[in-house]
Each structure stands twice: as C-alpha cells, then as structure tokens.
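As described in the Methods, two query proteins were run sequentially through the folding procedure within a single session, without resetting any intermediate state between them. The first query and its resulting structure tokens are shown here.
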Amino acid sequence: SDRPDPGIDRALDAAERAVDSRVGPIADVGEQASFPVPYYVARVADTTPFSDERAAEFGGGVAAGWDAAFMKALGEGLERYAAGVYREEAFTRAAAANVPNPVSPDAFVRPEDAAEYARDDRLPWAIGEHLSTGETASLPAEFVHFPPPENRYRPAITTGLGLGNTGPEAALSGLYEVIERDATMTSWYST
C-alpha cells in the first residue's frame, strides 16, 4: 500500500459499515467540495422511530486528504447519532438536592445572558461518571445530549462529543475537542 498508515484502511473499513440507507446510523455520505480541500457530509439516519428526539441531520468532515475527510464526516455523523438517541424517561427530573453528585449548570461556562440557575430548579439529569473517582455524577441532560431535551441554561453545542473504539478513547476524543476549542477561543479573543 502507498499509504503511510495501514490502520487508515482498517478504520475506514470498520466505519463504512455504519453507512446503509435502510438500517445504518449513517444513511449516506457525499462529497460537497474538492477545492481547496476535500469536504464530505454524512447524512444521519432518522432516529425518531426509537428516540424522543431527531438526531442532528448532518455531520461534516474536511481534511487535506480524501480518506481523512471522509472518515471525519463519518465520525461527526456517528457522534451526532449517538448524542441524539435517548428517551426522556431515562432522565431523572428533579432538583439538584435529589440526585447523586450533581454538577450544576453553573459549573459550566455559559453566556452572560443565560438563564439564572437555582438549586431548586427541576431539570432532567443524565448519569455520568467522575473520571478520577469512578463515582456516579449527575449532569444536566441538556449539556450531554444534542439536540438537548430542553434548552434552558445555554445554547446547544456539540463541543465535547467524542467517538472512539473504546469508552476511554471516546472520552479522550471529547476532551481533546474541548481543549482544542478552548485554546482556539482563548487565542482568538486575546489578539
């Protein structure tokens, strides 16, 4: 093979199995542009038959190489599919005092004009895990899922969604994205 990394072929082969217009999480992937760099868009399958929300419809991928751009589009589409499949009954709707180890909306960076959060506000909580202790943590569901079950405390964003071959890989992928975006914004606003 004339590729420097034979792992790319294996990764593409595995990821392409997700593309199927009838039963795949990704309905199709198409090239949107080739100049100045390859740009692909993955169309995410309709999740409404088995989810309370429709996952975001598209994921895009841009890179210097064709395979990398294609893989990025698949990855973005799969991230959106996974983040948008949920049942609201799986959330605990309660005040922070009634859930284990709550991480309140105030613990997150939010716009200055965001709605005020009060500890007695009832909101849907998703279950997470404290990475250093392994303890259960309760997270505002609107900060975990995209699109969120409700939009009260900040605009819906995909920062932190991660895809990987294992749980730890996916968590690292999401953390890397958060760090990357934070560095970009810090640099942007400091100039």
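Immediately afterward, the second query was submitted; its sequence and tokens are:
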Amino acid sequence: MRVASWKWVVGIVLGSAAILLAQEWQSVANLAGVDFAGLSAAKKNTALHALRNYDCTCGCGMKVAECRVKDPSCSYSRALSGTLVDAIRKGKTEAAAVEEAKASKHGHVAEAKLLDDPVAIPTLGSPMIGPANARIVLVEFSDFQCPYCVKAVAKINAILQAYPNDVRLIFKQFPLETHPQASISAAAALAAHNQGKFWAMHDTLFANRTQLSRQNILGWAAKLGLDMKRFTADLDSDAIKKAVIKDTQDGDKAGVEGTPTVFIDGQRYNGELALDAVKPVIDGELKRLSAKK
C-alpha cells in the first residue's frame, strides 16, 4: 500500500511539473534573446501580452513567447520579438506593434528556395571528411549542444555513405549563445583537431550532448588518447578562441541564423537533411557539374 501510494504521489508531482513546464512561457517575465531594457512596467506587460498572443511565423505552431522558451535558437521568434518590443518602446500601441511585426521580413513565411544563391565560405584549416577531390562540398555550421544538430549527425553520415567518392563534408563551429556549454565544446573539438582527432571528439561530444562540461570534456580527451598537456593548453588558448569566433563570423556573413545549417557548394540548403530529400539536389548538382565538362 505504501509503495502504491508513493508511486501515485510521484506520478502527480511529475505530471504537475510537466504541466508547469509546458505553461512556463505564459508567465515567464524574461525571454531568451529579447531585450526589454528601457521599458516601463506597463510597456513590458504590453510587450509580453503581444508576444504571448502573436503566432510565430516559423511554422512551429506556437506563439512567439512560447517559441522563445521552447526553441531559443529560432531566428523568426527572435526577430519578431525584437520588432514588437522596439515598436512598443517607441510608444506604439500593441495593435500597431503587431502590424509592424507582420510587415517585417520575418512577419510571414516566404516560399524558400531549396538552394540559396552561392556565397563564399572560408574553409582553410577546417575539419573535413571525405575525398579531397570530391565534386560536391558540404559545409555544416553546427553547435555541439544543439538537439537538432545531434539528429543531423546520422543524416549527414548517410549522405556521405551514399556518395563516398563525390561528397566532402567540412565542419564549422557555430556555438549559440543560448547553449552555455557550446563554446567550450567547440574549443575542445578544435583542440582535438590539432592532434588529428577532431571526428573522434565530434562523435563523443554529440553522443554526450546533455553531459557537456569542462571536467567531462577533459575526461573524454584522456580516453581518446590525446596529449593532455597540449590539449588543455589548446583548449584555453587565444588561438582556439579566435578560431571559434572566426567560424561564427563566417557563418554570420553567410547568413546562418540557426543550427544546423548546411551549404551545398556554397548554396544554403533549406530542405530536410534526410537522404531521400537531399539526394535529388546532390544528383542535380553532379549532373550540372558534368555538363560543364
């Protein structure tokens, strides 16, 4: 009887916690990436009311505030929040602020091209896998603490396996500010790269995404057989920090807004990463390249 009662109590507690977590966005007073500075209490309440009632346009089916809480990497909810709050800061009514958000770049979901126009992305010295003479080059901007990036690992591996002679992958760091362990993880990957073990560290970090910490990273590095004195020095070095910043800046210039973002021969790919979705695109690129010969 005591065991059954205890399980019943635990079930209620866990269920209540899940409900509270789901409803948090409706009461939270601060949202990731949203600057409420300079707003009076009344204006902040107006802004929050708008954010809690205006639909995010990223296609998630959530309100803007809900999307900021549940998917802080979403570029749509971040941009919409900024537009709404700025409008209210300037003295506009809630209705006028919403109209301004609707008229903004992120106010509606545009029909995205599968491949954007090509951009130049510096890749010298970046970790790569696949044949050096591959006709197709994928550049991935990723974050080791990003849940979507973890799911992308198997999908990208499937692409590489399907095109062992034609596709090369280059990995670029893009740690998001909303992920507190992303920057040190990016530094750890590049420190391992200095010893020729980037991909081993890459796999380890993604496999342990929810356990990322400096202490754990040092332990994993030791298990990978890295020279720990050199690894620790590189991990904390200005050179590695600058390399991570440089990758992030390269991503910003290329139009990266979230992770993972993949470019196919310099063209940002806006579709699903599943092999059956990417295959027609890669086949088309290969056909186009063959026609140029």
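Residues 27-103 form one domain. We note this only descriptively and draw no conclusion about the first query from it.
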